[in-house]
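#dry-run=false #mode=assembly
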Amino acid sequence: MSESHNNTRDRVAAVMKTEVFRLRHPKVWPAAIEEAALPAEVGGRIAEIVRRARLWNRESLDVAKELIAHAHAAIEKEVAPTEIVEGLGEPRPVARLIRRAVRRKRSWLWHTRVWLLRSIGGVVGAAVLLVVLVAARAWLGHPTPKRDFYAELNAPILKLDDDQKAWPLYKDAYQTIIQQSEAANELMKPRADQWLGREITDQQRELGVTYTGVEMANAITPDHPDYPAMLGLLQSLQPALDEIREGSTRPVIGRLVSSRVETRDSPEPGWIGDAIPESDDPAEQEFLIAALLPHLSPTRTFARWLVLDAEVALRTGDGERAARSIVAIFRIADQLEREPFLISGLVAYALDSIALKTVDEALESHADVWTRDDLALLAHELGAKRMTLERLPLDSEKMMFEDFLQRAFTDDGHGDGHITDEGIRLIRDMESVTDSDLDLGVESLISLVGLASRARQHDAYDSMMAAAREDEDAGYAIYQGRPRALALWEDRCLGRIDTALVQMLAPALGRCVDSENTLRVRFDATLTAVAMELYRRDTGDWPATPDELVPRYLPSAPADPFDGKPLKLTIREGRPVLYSIGPDLNDDGGDPGDVGPGKALRSTADTADPPRGDWVLFPPSARP
Amino acid sequence: MKIERELMRGAGPVAVLHLLSAREMYGYELVEALSRRSDGVLAMGQSTLYPMLYNLEAKGLVEAEWRESDSGRDRKYYRLTGKGKKKLSKDTEAWRALAKAMAALGVLEGAPAGVMA
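#status=ok
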């Protein structure tokens, strides 16, 4: 070895001893091995082990130096290079063992950092993997709708003869009413704004805001100069109203359920196309929530005209016609309640409410027009209706939900399955048409895909419906401190994406429960008002309490929904005032205070600070 | 005789700690001493020894220092720490108990079978 080479070696060795140099300059250890002048195979094996160990420079150098020292010691003992190489072992496993051991000597700070990085990496990796798996699962699976809900819904309708269905009559009557009242509109329009107390601007007319015939007719009071014209219109509509009254006696409306309807290029006013049957293959059908229900709007129109007819009949002393028109509204509501759609039920409640209001006002203002027979007819109808209000028609909603599941999830044949790409698109569509404020963005959808199974949706739906039933049975018990079951259910679901689909239905369901609870009380009250009128005719006086009406006029005294005791009755200015003690649970002697006729009594109202006063049920003029 | 890896994993560190309890030693010395004094039974190559020493160092049972040897070469000397002494004492007791139990069972010579019964 030359002198210059030795000088270089010394210089390198000196520099290598500087810690700063060792830390900042990588690959010092190869030089150290080279400088050790070991037999080539020994040096090569040490170099490979150190390289594979992948340690910090300082650590690599330390390990290299130790192995070099070991080799030198062996050489001094005249151990053959091949034996030394054998003692060093296979580079890969030895390097791994050295790496692990040397790293254990590192500081706790390094170990903590490694642990943190590995944890974060693990979590991120697991999340990415989950998303990938879930997305792949959604992409790979497809829904296989098997149940033909349209066929199931239409089967009972198809079994009936046409004379058992109201729809043929309703369809015809609606067209007549729309055409006649449109003609009347032209006649009455010049003074319509004045009659209705509001003005429709030209701009609004362009936007399609117009008066409806019934709105205009309702606004014309007997002292109005056009009252005779309105009576003429009503008279011309009597054949149509007869058709409606006749239709209301039939068991069902009987319009076929479909998502498609017959169309015409230029249809006559009021014309409603027939339903176009769905495909026989459930996979090709629209999902059930898209089913068209074009008969709902006409039923509201019928109710308004029947109310007008009843009011005019009462003014002209025709109590029997008035009673028949009111009963017709109740029966149309009955027909709607029998339909397997919650929305039909809600319209039915609206119709019942209109009819009850009409009976209440008539009992207050025109009671004498009604004969005993008329009152008996109304009492019978009210009693029968009250019985049907015991339960919300929730089964139909489950059908809707089931149909959605079969179009959004796969089917494993045992009631379970996972969300599909088609399902995600359906949910996005639903999200855009519901008033839900749930976040169903892409990120949430990924979670949804990961967490929700078809069976889980069933469970969530059933638990929500059970909560709704509980609220239905509890009535207004929330004002006595009982928590609202549906609200508790929603609280439990808060932030849980797996029940998000079902949660979207909760607000509408809550409104249904409220409407039903309110309506039950109103039916009780109106039935009691009819009974009081009969009592007065028989005894010449008003009853002092509802108990006096039992059993001759009522099977039992109607219960106050707030305390379970009979509704309260007081005589004011010679007239009976029927009331409930209201949400503040205090008997204020029939003073309505702040209690409105419905909104203040919603189960979503603030029960901690309920409105003060009583819920006055009859007469309507005593309500706020 | 070749010892099973699991047995070696238990015996090796105790043997190394025991050798270092007498005096400080460098790697090659340890390899030689283990082989010679155990009649080759506990012989181990560098591939086993150094990772073991680094582990003992990481646990604080031994400490190392680079020093120039008599031959003029740098060597890394290992010596037992206080913690290492305690560990050795504890492990030695365990091994004694184990040997006694094995002897009692007749696996090892030196005690009649059935003593443990």
